[in-house]
Design brief:
- With 205 residues, this protein is α/β, with parallel strands linked by helices.
- The protein has a single domain, classed as Rossmann fold (3-Layer(aba) Sandwich), CATH 3.40.50.
- The protein has 9 helices and 5 strands.
- Strands 1, 2, 3, 4 and 5 form a 5-stranded parallel sheet that branches.
- The longest helix is centred in the first third of the chain and has 18 residues.
Length: 205
């Protein structure tokens, strides 16, 4: 059962499979295979015609059982853009389930929501403190950079996967609505692929 992701950034190409593996571990299921994400420009993931073309590309993945689309909402309202993209994608995919997740503003919002769990990882300061309202930040990358020790610099392509591997997912789930959407999307795709999920999300999240 193969899940084909479509992502916007080079960092997510490596980070999203890491995240899915952690969600699989949290769900105690291993019947899903997430293949290397296909990277598309943001405009190809946020406007109807290009979204449909991107979905057709994803459907060409052998044994594709589901598609997930991940992109930053930036200045667009995630609660509007995400459902629009999902509607276009599902219409194109037909019986293959699609889920679209618009991260509120930036993927790095998830990191700054639980940065204490990242202390001493990839240059994060041992005294870094999480942002009180992570999904309202217009420059989450800049806020994350400010959490780093002098001389350390955040690079999505270098650091995003490593931080994804270590961040406290339960805390991110509590504090970020867009991450709760991601967790829900994972559950929808798993169940659509025939994997029975019980107690999802995990108790305590």
């Amino acid at each position: 059962m193969v899940i084909q992701p479509l992502v916007e950034g080079y960092g997510e190409v490596v980070a999203l499979p890491v995240l899915f593996r952690r969600l699989q571990a949290a769900a105690q299921l291993y019947g899903l295979q997430i293949v290397r994400p296909l990277r598309r420009k943001r405009s190809e993931l946020t406007t109807e015609g290009p979204v449909r073309r991107s979905v057709r590309l994803a459907l060409g993945t052998p044994d594709c059982a589901g598609i997930i689309i991940l992109f930053d909402s930036d200045e667009d309202p995630a609660c509007i853009l995400g459902p629009d993209v999902q509607r276009w994608a599902q219409a194109e995919a037909g019986l293959i389930p699609c889920q679209a997740v618009a991260v509120t503003r930036e993927y790095e919002a998830w990191f700054i929501s639980a940065v204490e769990s990242l202390r001493k990882v990839r240059g994060i300061s041992p005294v870094a403190i999480s942002h009180p309202t992570p999904e309202t930040v217009r420059n989450a990358k800049g806020v994350l950079q400010a959490c780093m020790t002098p001389g350390s610099y955040y690079s999505p392509t270098v650091d995003q996967a490593a931080l994804t591997a270590r961040v406290d997912l339960a805390e991110v789930h509590r504090r970020c609505r867009s991450f709760r959407k991601m967790v829900k999307a994972f559950g929808v795709l798993a169940q659509a692929a025939g994997v029975r999920l019980e107690n999802w999300p995990p108790q305590g999240w």
